[in-house]
Amino acid sequence: NHLEANFEPDDLIAIESGYRNDEAQFGAKVAVESFKKMYHAAAKEGLGLVINSGYRSYEEQEELCEVYRLLYGDNYVKKYVASPGYSEHQTGLAFDIGSTSSNIFADSLEYQWMLKNAHKYGFILRFSKSGETITGFRNEPWHYRYVGEKIATYIYEHNITFEEYYVEFLV
Q1: How far apart are CA 150 and CA 163, in angstroms?
Q2: Distance CA 95, CA 146 (A)
Q3: pLDDT in tens, 38-77
Q4: Is 140 an active-site residue?
Q5: HSE of 16 in the Cβ direction (CA atoms, 13 Å)?
Q6: Backbone angles phi, psi at 48, to 5 degrees
Q7: Distance from the CA of 32 to the CA of which of 93, 121, 138, 146 falls in 20 to 30 A?
Q8: Active-site entry in 132, 140, 149, 163
Q9: What is this structure's pTM?
Q10: Are 93 and 27 spatial neighbours (Cβ–Cβ below 8 Å)?
């Protein structure tokens, strides 16, 4: 679904420094609060989660597309980067999550933990390898979307994509 250029969630809050990388990040309040609970649960197991990217405005997504266009060309952007107005980051409900112990999230213990536990806090792995043909996006092991515990648990237990859930229950 397309978001207008002026769309901004009305419940954006700053993500405190302990939960994010060095640059300022924002997110929808419900997603930030749930991330904090998830962060502390992972920390109890000796794991370190961090938000590398939270809310992104339409304009910020335009800039990101242009950076990738200059670096890798139009085909890369069309294939791998959400167009402005189509990035879930603009909703404030999507976070790119990283590990404090590894530069490659997909190779980290934190990623393995997230695969098993994110749904308990209302998050889903948004773009899985197995769902690429359904979502139209390549696997992004770091990209998690807050959908609420009930929906996240259903998606997790049935091993489906958000698109499949949407078609089954929301259309």
Answers
A1: 16
A2: 8
A3: 999 999 999 999 999 999 999 999 999 999 999 999 999 9
A4: yes
A5: 6
A6: -120, 110
A7: 138
A8: 140
A9: 0.94
A10: yes
